[in-house]
Design goal:
With about 450 residues, the chain is of the alpha/beta class. It has a domain at about 90-110 and about 225-420: Rossmann fold (3-Layer(aba) Sandwich), CATH 3.40.50.1100. It contains 19 helices and 15 strands. The chain is globular and about 55 Å long. The chain binds pyridoxal-5'-phosphate (PLP). Pyridoxal-5'-phosphate binds near residues 143, 221, 407 and 408. Its EC number is 4.2.3.1.
Length: about 450
């Protein structure tokens, strides 16, 4: 299994290499050269298996010889042992033919743990073999940062540096990043929004002297291994509802397009998914792009679902690569246009995207109203991101079961949830003293040179 860049100009890599590399050197993202298809009988045989065994069978075809089977099974077991629900990803029915997939039972209470915990295990295992040391730099709209810190804190040969937009994450999200005491954890509060953080991160990857000098590695969803780990729960939940004998649809609260792109890969692997519905908050570039063909930013407006306050969704490039017939030069050209604000998706590419994806947006008022209405109708307390998706899913219900992804625990956003429904969701016991722990954070400007100097200084310690 080889991985190629969406811009066609970087060397093809193995799984292990793509995982340690992150962004391709031509600025593109790595994708598998071909996606392995699981025969219907193999999908049917997933019925009733544990999450861990499902993960092994779904991910194994993508790994080549990076790990032995026994080793990979051990890494998976370690990755999910810290989840506080035996099912790992339980399904809850909230209406006729409408199900919520709870993805917030990991250590940092958001779906990011599903990928970050296993990528942490895999990177450690790879580094133990090579003896290398690396600097992980991540940009976060709130949840990636805490999940990455949780996965890498205290490890000897890894520094983890997280850039988050100052003042634009929830207090729980911020404290999860600023209270760990391990010296290899560096939380940086940057001026600007998430798109700025992600742009500076990409700048660091595109500065090869810096990149090679600090042994930069990335755990944002530009990293293929992140996406792959998320493919698993699409299979796990669809099979629980009768796939491959019965098709399902998914609605996914979308920011950087990594989560829903994992659903797209599951569909290419043969899982019968009728539609993948992109749910956006008021930062609705993807919904507008899919409706009109015009992919154009109009600035990030802070919302009560901050992890989706994104206008430049990195992983959309992976979907465009396929929609443009895997033409790396065409992708490079539209990404270049994006630097000046936007581009028009070609008619052919748009048609191709619409075969798989549908979309909808949810306003701030609708988000709050959905939290209240879902609580009243079902007793389920949704986080604002999950509420965005439940609202959009409701507009796309049909004969096929709808699975809506619940991406975070409501206790990560207690103010928004309480304002919407009157209930203040409590943190689980292992985080109960979060508000009492001292914070450690460095304010940084939106400036590449300053960031690079700070990172060099920190990792020299
Ligand atoms: C990251 C995140 C999202 C968006 O996921 P993408 O993969 O970036 O599209 C949605 N909800 C929550 C709670 C998140 O943390």
């Amino acid at each position: 299994m080889r991985y190629i860049s969406t811009r066609g100009q970087a060397p093809a890599l193995s799984f292990g290499e793509a995982m340690m590399t992150g962004l391709a050197r031509d600025g593109g993202l790595y994708v598998p050269e071909t996606v392995p298809v699981l025969p219907a009988a193999e999908i049917a045989a997933l019925a009733g298996l544990s999450y861990e065994e499902t993960a092994f069978r779904v991910m194994r075809p993508f790994l080549g010889d990076t790990f032995t089977d026994a080793e990979f099974r051990r890494l998976i077991a370690a990755a999910y042992a810290g989840f506080d629900h035996a099912a790992r990803a339980p399904l809850v029915q909230i209406g006729p033919n409408h199900f919520v997939l709870e993805l917030f039972h990991g250590p940092t209470l958001a779906f990011k743990d599903f990928a970050m915990q296993i990528i942490g295990q895999m990177m450690q295992a790879a580094l133990a073999k090579s003896g290398q040391r690396i600097t992980i730099v991540g940009a976060t709209s709130g949840d990636t940062g805490s999940a990455a810190i949780e996965a890498f804190r205290g490890l000897k040969n890894i520094d983890v540096v997280i850039l988050f937009p100052h003042g634009r994450v929830s207090e729980v999200q911020r404290r999860q990043m600023t209270t760990p005491t391990e010296s290899n954890v560096h939380a940086l509060a940057m001026e600007g929004d998430f798109d700025d953080c992600q742009a500076r991160l990409k700048d660091m990857f595109n500065d090869f002297a810096f990149r090679d000098g600090v042994h930069l590695a990335g755990v944002n969803s530009i990293n293929w291994a992140r996406v792959l780990a998320q493919v698993v729960y699409y299979f796990y939940s669809a099979v629980a509802l009768g796939a491959p004998g019965r098709a399902v649809s998914f609605t996914v609260p979308t920011g950087n397009f990594g989560d829903i792109f994992a659903g797209y890969i599951a569909r290419k692997m043969g899982l019968p998914i009728e539609k993948l519905v992109i749910a956006t908050n008021q930062n609705d570039i993807l919904d507008r792009a899919l409706r009109t063909g015009d992919h154009r930013t109009n600035g990030v407006k802070p919302s009560i679902s901050p992890s989706m306050d994104i206008q430049v969704s990195s992983n959309f490039e992976r979907a465009l690569f396929d929609a443009y017939g895997r033409d790396g030069a065409a992708v490079a050209a539209v990404m270049d246009e994006m630097k000046s604000g936007g581009f028009r998706i070609s008619q052919g590419a748009l048609q191709s995207l619409r075969e798989t994806f549908a979309s909808g947006r949810c306003s701030e008022e609708e988000t709050s109203a959905t939290i209240a209405a879902t609580l009243a109708a079902t007793g389920e307390v949704l986080c604002p991101h999950s509420a965005v998706a439940v609202k959009v899913a409701a507009d796309h219900l049909g004969p096929v079961p709808m699975i809506t992804l619940a991406t975070a625990h409501p206790a990560k956003f207690p103010d928004a949830v309480q304002a919407a429904c009157g209930i203040r969701p409590a943190l689980p016991p292992h985080m109960a003293d979060l508000y009492d722990r001292p914070e450690r954070v460095t304010r940084v400007p939106n400036d590449l040179c300053a960031l690079q100097a700070l990172i060099r200084e920190r990792i020299a310690l």
